[in-house]
Amino acid sequence: MKGFLKGTKLLALSLALHLQRANTQGIIDVLSKQDGIKLSTYLINQTITKVVPNIDDFGYTLFVPTDEAYKNYLLLQPSSEDLFASFLYQILGEPVFTNQLEDEETVFIDSMLVGQDYVNLNSTNKQQPQVVGLFRTGTGTPSDEFNMNIIDGTFQQKTTFPSIVKANINVGKHGVVHIVDKVFEVPKSLKTVLGSLITFTRYNGMFNRSGLLDVYDNKPGITVFATENEGQNWSIPPQAVEANIKSSVVSQNVIYTRLFDKTSSVSSDLDKYYFSLSHNKTSHEYRAGNALVTIPNILLKNGVLHGIDSTIYDKPPQTPTGSTKAPARRSRFSRRAVTEKQNREIYVRDSSAIPKLTFEEPLYVTLTKILEDLTPELSNKFS
To answer: How confident is the model over 247-297, as pLDDT tens digits?
Structure first.
């Protein structure tokens, strides 16, 4: 009898494992059942699944634009390189579900986008990928469901960030797909952002007068605190222009608002000039020195820009009171169990236990060639 029970248990375990594998659906099978994403499904099937045939074994997050989103994007006639960049920018190397995010607290997660033409975040030989910002709103109740919010390279006034159309679609063993209404915009250069936003006209003018704009436009890994027009003194004497600019920039240290709590003081590029960073968790206010951060986390090709309401350089150099370097970014989520609005429990493993999706140099070359061949036909394929 014991042998029979033991054999029965083994059979049941074997059957359970078989059913679990059988219920795991591949990415193309899952996407082909969704409405309005034929173009994205075609792109993914012609690219990622060819260079990573076992993609369903990895943990990743894939943001999938709708057909309408891609049609609008293709009207801009992007080059194959730009299409490739936005495509990679929509892939994160780990699974991220809505319920893993925190309320109003933005986390920045590495995408698959690297390459000097689009990313310049560090000065070491190892290329740092561009990041995507994510945060959650809502209470999780039936009347106020959780919603994932995205921060990409969008920065123009009167434009919107990509929005989630459908979230938390399980694919493969560890992957997740979120359908979005807009193709991700790759972060632009400092010069492009400052030159395009009217709210920074005075600051941009001072930057140009300093002769430092080209220097910082090409400098890897910077944080810029740009004063909005109302708080920027236009009559700064010529001899003080450079000091004002350098006091508002931190080099070799990309400080997203997420790191303000862990960075009590930073050293600006002005010699011996330090200022504090703070975060009021009650009011959700961020400050750089005495200046209020009014426009947080504008992602740049080579760092991040925060809009502030007043100039930082308003007093003599200070003595640092704490760490002057932000800690390394962490994008991995802790081990936890979360519950979706459908009361379906999702168990999220420690990221270190899930094989992370990575693209090595040969795969980038292959993907680039595939997309170059595909680009001419995309505009007409789903018209």
So the answer is: 999 999 999 998 988 767 899 999 989 999 999 888 889 999 999 999 999
Check whether residue 304 and residue 340 sit in a common domain: no
Q: Are residue 194 and residue 284 in the same domain, yes or no?
A: yes
Show the domain range for 133. Answer: 24-186+333-381
Contact 180, 64 (CB under 8 A): yes
Q: Is the pTM of this model over 0.85?
A: no
- Do residue 153 and residue 268 come from a single domain? no
- 3-class DSSP assignment, residue 256: coil
**Residue 56 · residue 173 · CB < 8 Å:** yes
Listed residue (168, 151, 173) closest to 160, CA to CA: 151
Alpha carbon distance 351, 87 (integer Å): 23
Residue 367 tokens read as: 């993907």
User: What torsion do the CA atoms of 360, 362, 363, 369 make, to the nearest 10 degrees?
Assistant: 150
Q: Is residue 320 part of a domain?
A: no
Phi first, then psi: what are they for 137, rounded to 5°? -125, 165
In one-letter notation, the amino acid at residue 304 is V
**Do residues 32 and 134 both lie within one domain?**
yes
Asked whether residue 317 is assigned to any structural domain, the reply reads no
Q: How far apart are CA 114 and CA 373, in angstroms?
A: 21
Q: What is the CATH number of the domain that holds 121?
A: 2.30.180.10
Task: Quickly count: other Cβ atoms within 10 Å of residue 357's Cβ.
Answer: 22
For the chain, what is the mean pLDDT?
80
Number of domains in the chain: 2
